[in-house]
Amino acid sequence: MISLGLDLSTQSLSAVLIDSTAGEIIHEHAINFAESFPEFETENGFIRGPKKEFYSYPQLYLKAIDKMMHYLEDLNPKIESISISGHQHASVYLNGSLPKILAELNQSDQLSEALTPAFSRPIVPIWMDNSTTEECLEMDKNLNGSVTELSGSLYCERFTAAQIRKFYKNSPEAYNETQFIHLISSFFASVFAGKNVSIDSSDGAGMNLMNLATSQWDDNLLEACAPNLKAKLPNIEPASNVATKVSNYFVEKYSLNPNCDICLSSGDNPNSLIGCGATDPGTVVISMGTSDTFFGAIGNEPIDTKGIGHIFGNPAGGYMSLICFRNGSLSREAALKSTGLNWQEGEKLISENTPCKESNYLPFIVDEMYPSCAAQINEESLSSFSPTKALVGLIESQILNLRFFAAKHAKNINTIRLTGGASQNTAIAQMIADVFQAKVERIEISNSAALGSAMRAANASGQESWDSLNKNFTAAKSQLLPNSSNASIYEDKLKAYAHLLQTI
Ligand code: XUL
Predict the structure, then answer these.
(1) CB neighbours (10 Å) of residue 252?
(2) Among residues 64, 331, 404, 491, which one has the fewest Cβ atoms lying within 10 Å of its Cβ?
(3) pLDDT per residue over 484-504, tens digit each?
(4) Is residue 196 within 8 Å of residue 237, measured between CB atoms?
(5) In angstroms, what CA-CA distances link 393 with 87, 331, 349, 379, 399?
């Protein structure tokens, strides 16, 4: 089966086309928003407001879809199923004209222009937005119960509920005029389907509105957020469902096959879980980028996060956990700079000093979420350390911090799939294996969210099994085994690090 995964991220729209029968990626392409659509004057695809607001434009995303489908024109007739991935939490607001406009799209229409009258809000608030602390506090007060137990996360500024409440409070008329509130994922699935499509339960879990245990809207969470909300939200369905066939617009304009299935879409994190081959508990992913993210499947029972990280749905069934750490590469780069070494020399220093003989410390150069604290070090303090303490000590402390918080979500970690820039550094990868005492597999997947959504489309529409999809698309490029003689040293270091955390 030929399946298309489209990932609408903050900065770009990426396409990954797979042939699941041949086990091959046929084509990959990305469209960068800021470069391709300078008329929107975005900074890497987003706009900053004066008060910690971050948003983008639905028209920009529609222009990107038109451009991508035009680019893929020769391949389009072969595509048998499509699924979309969208950056999580972002919401799209539409009035009652949406169903008619979608149903009557004509091949001479540009999506962005034809859909303009359907938007009841000209912007899409995105996950970087941090302007809704007041709304989070209000909802917490309105809710007679624990938001974390019900929804899997504390009330978060970037989550959809807080954004919806702010819109309702600041623009009550536009809120009343709004008849449909979609996530990015469900909105673009609806565009391809030519009619409203459900939100999938794995992305729905990132809204603070869905009851994790039932995978349905929770009346108490809805009531705490805004009036008449249930009527504006699509239904929720499992990620494994096929929504419908592609609309006539895409058949006539872009030569898609009328039998092409539009599968339910999901968020970038649930899709990345699939694209990183981590659908089963015991295997987790550590993505080492600007920020470091830990995520993994946790089985069929949601866990109480006690406010640490989030629980989303696992598109392959059950739940997944996710913890995002703000201090990733920024801290590692600052530590390297303070030593005056390059990364090749730094890697040697790390491998010769694992475990680190210097004492650990709180390795946060910017404010951190886990633990919740202000920055603890700066370039000056790093320069006062020995090179070993600055570089090896910082990275080891980061990994101990990761293990400390990861243990709250995942009890038995056998395999860590490592991705992101820093995963290329073998000394860091070996240190992770030693600190966690788990096998580390390095994966080189350029866009795990787009690949994950293509794999989901092949699974939902073509009944391709996760085993065969994983074998063909997510195999590890290399693996490192833990050095068991370091196990007890890291147990002791972890205990000492836990004491250090209590000093915050
Ligand atoms: C997760 C989060 C981001 C966005 C954008 O909670 O906010 O990972 O999904 O990638």
Answers:
(1) 14
(2) 491
(3) 999 999 999 999 999 999 999
(4) no
(5) 34, 12, 11, 14, 10
In Å, what is the CA distance from 148 to each residue of 200, 207, 212, 213, 217?
20, 12, 10, 12, 15
- Residue 388 exposed, middle or buried by CB count within 10 Å (0-12, 13-18, 19+): middle
How much distance in Å is there from the Cα of 269 to the middle of ligand 1? 7
Between 421 and 189, the more confident residue is 189
User: Which residues, in sequence order, are CB contacts of 501 under 8 Å at separation 6+?
Assistant: 362, 371, 404
Contacts of 455 (CB under 8 A, 6+ apart): 3, 5, 18, 20, 274, 275, 464, 469, 473
Q: Name the packing angle between helices 487-501 and 426-436 (round to 10°).
A: 80
Handedness of CA 136, 503, 364, 270 (dihedral sign): negative
Q: How far apart are the C-alpha atoms of 36 and 47, rounded to whole Å?
A: 16
Test site for ligand 1: of 14, 46, 87, most ligand atoms within 8 A of the Cβ? 87
How far apart CA 89 and CA 87 sit, in angstroms, is 7
pTM of the model: 0.94
As a whole number of angstroms, the distance between CA 208 and CA 218 comes to: 9
Residue ranges lining ligand 1, Cβ < 6 Å: 87-89, 127, 158, 267-269, 310, 324
